[in-house]
Amino acid sequence: MKFDLLDLSFFGVLLKIILIVLIYIIIVQALKIMSRDVKRGGLKNGKNLGWRLKLVYPGDGGAFVEGDTIPIGNKLTIGRNRQNQMVLPSPSVSNFHVKIYFEDGRYMLEDLNSTNGTFINGVMVDKKSLQPGDEISISQTVLVVSDDV
């Protein structure tokens, strides 16, 4: 069987085209992954995700009004005491009611032995990881976890 030189050059061109298409697909997938990380506000390698709490019902929110957004950062403490980053002046809020912090690539909420408890989506919790859309209730104040940066 005899191969023509023209046939071999066709296969060479075909292999080059296939290689270019594969490289293009890899680059597009890498850009999609990077874009998702940028939209989330950070990577999960120790940096916080840039999530926020959106105030949907101020209740006893003190200086906060409906629609305010509070960045969580690496740690956010909420309570009646002025040493907290978010102060809720209601007597039904404990001095140091709850803390939200970033750990192992996720946000955690921890109730600090508050008198009246902390609720996520209507369930009283001691410690729980947070997801976007979770509704946090502290006394009459209602906050929603948002990953919109």
From TrEMBL:
SMART domains: FHA
Transmembrane domains' residue ranges: 12-31
Keyword terms: Membrane, Transmembrane, Transmembrane helix
Domain FHA: 76-125
Family matches, as Pfam families: FHA
The protein's name: FHA domain-containing protein FhaA
Lineage: Bacteria, Bacillati, Bacillota, Clostridia, Eubacteriales
